[in-house]
Specification:
two-stranded antiparallel ribbon; about 60 residues; 4 strands; alpha+beta; Alpha-Beta Plaits; binds iron/sulfur cluster
C-alpha cells in the first residue's frame, strides 16, 4: 500500500508551515477552512519529513 501523509485536523492550527515547506503536498482549502493533502502518485519523502518535523502542532504523520 502507498505511503501518504495525513493531517490530524483536530490539532492543526492552519499556520501554513507545511505549505511553505512542501507546497506540492499540502494546501489550504479555502472552501472548508482546512488544510489538505494533495493527491499525488508519489510523495516527496524529504519535503514531507521536513513538514512533519516543523509542524508546531505535531499533527502530520505517514499513513499506509
Ligand atoms: S504545519 Fe501543522 S499545524 Fe501548520 S498548517 Fe500544517 S499541519 Fe497544520
Amino acid at each position: 500500500m502507498k505511503k501518504y501523509p495525513s493531517i490530524d485536523l483536530g490539532r492543526c492550527n492552519e499556520c501554513m508551515g507545511c505549505v511553505e515547506v512542501a507546497p506540492s503536498v499540502f494546501r489550504y482549502n479555502a472552501s472548508n477552512g482546512f488544510m489538505e493533502v494533495v493527491e499525488l502518485e508519489e510523495y516527496p519523502l524529504e519535503d514531507v519529513e521536513e513538514a512533519i518535523k516543523n509542524c508546531p502542532e505535531d499533527c502530520i504523520s505517514w499513513e499506509g
